[in-house]
Amino acid sequence: MKRVKGVNLHIPVVHGSYAKHLGDKGTESRSHEWTVYLRPLQAADLSHFIKHVEFVLHESFEPQTRRVTEMPYEVQEYGWGEFEVVIRVFFQDPSEKPVEFFHPLRLFETMGEPSPDPVVSEHYDEIVFQDPPEKLHSLLKTIPHGPNLRIKQPSYPISNYFKDFSGAESNDLRKLEHARRTLREETIKRQAKYERLEEERAGLLRQISGYDSRAS
């Protein structure tokens, strides 16, 4: 499969959760109704390149891993405790490895105090494709990406509670995340190049050793 070398595509996404305290309708073990999700930063259809998304919940939930095959990528549950949710993204192109995000599920705004409004926790992140296949590259070029894009929030029932990533501070955070991922990609490239050179060096040493043994 032919790839576009030297190209990195950054697709902005947001992983988040919102939780609602049930009050008198809840129980000790079901005090909150919550939803964890992965959404596009802009109004984009991620299913063009995402095959499915897995949400790995706390081990007390059955089943612990939930697979969602179409947008919206979200899981709704009931519970009483906060924990870290693992979000795994699998792609339509089987040659692309899955990526993981780690989202802290929040039920309270302050220590143990229930909130009358939904508690929303959101984090900006990016799906990065390094040297993507030509077909995937052509598709992803049609999706807005990069650290300076204009924000257009998708339509969600509680979108008025979503974090605004268009402000100066959020824009700086997005640029920082973009730079961090770019640095990590370069580090991975350099590590791969170093390992390749080490393999070549080891091969040359084996050849030299073979010549020496034949000469003796």
From TrEMBL:
Chain ranges of the YEATS domain: 3-143
Location of the protein in the cell: Nucleus
Q: Just give the chief location class.
A: nucleus
Coiled-coil positions are 180-214
In terms of InterPro entries, this protein maps to:
YEAST_sf, YEATS, YEATS_dom
**Keywords in alphabetical order:** Coiled coil, Initiation factor, Nucleus, Protein biosynthesis, Transcription, Transcription regulation
| One Pfam family recorded for the sequence | YEATS
Recorded GO cellular component terms are:
nucleus
- Top-level taxon in the UniProt lineage: Eukaryota
The answer to whether the entry has keyword Coiled coil is yes
Which GO BP annotation is one of this protein's? Answer: regulation of DNA-templated transcription
Tell me which CDD domains the record gives.
YEATS_TFIID14_like
Gene Ontology terms, MF aspect: translation initiation factor activity
Any keyword Transcription regulation?
Answer: yes
The protein in question is named: Transcription initiation factor TFIID subunit 14
Origin organism of this chain? Gracilariopsis chorda
